[in-house]
Amino acid sequence: GEDVEQSLFLSVREGDSSVINCTYTDSSSTYLYWYKQEPGAGLQLLTYIFSNMDMKQDQRLTVLLNKKDKHLSLRIADTQTGDSAIYFCAESPPSGGSYIPTFGRGTSLIVHP
Amino acid sequence: DTGVSQDPRHKITKRGQNVTFRCDPISEHNRLYWYRQTLGQGPEFLTYFQNEAQLEKSRLLSDRFSAERPKGSFSTLEIQRTEQGDSAMYLCASGWGQGELDTQYFGPGTRLTVL
User: Fold this and answer.
1) Is pLDDT above 90 for A86?
2) Which of A52, B2, B30, B33 could disulfide-link B93, Cβ–Cβ 3.0 to 4.6 Å?
């Protein structure tokens, strides 16, 4: 995951907004993804954004994409304790006709009551 | 369909033994992926199938690792002559992929411990 970088930890108070940032290196990725992993579980797809878009909103989630800077962010509005988890961003650039997903190391979101 | 399932959930083995893991994808999905995840890291891609064809296997960690997906349904991942460094969580994911959009649904994983 060295091609996709994320900060490792984020701590917020319940009810505040959380912003998780990610930088990626391969501008040929057509889609970029955010996944959530709760303890002891597999990853759950949260949302994705097409590379020609700047923003995508889905209920409490807002994804911002700055393609020039290869920067992706996930904003969670009104963060709840149930949002505590590890969040992974991922790119999936073409590679010889296949699409090889590359995940970051994940950002641990801790939500305090 | 309740999602992607993996079996076993936990496996403890001695160094040098062979292990095999099974993944049952969501039935209508045509793509199936295997990943390895170690503590503090994101999933590391190993291989994937589109239907029964294994389209990418160059990322398998060594020739001790192999995967199959007979008939394009369930898949198995085998590790031969296990080493302590193989201890990790092995994740399977499936998806209905066409072209560049690649949304994946993950199973709960198989945690391997090699003693």
Assistant:
1) yes
2) B33
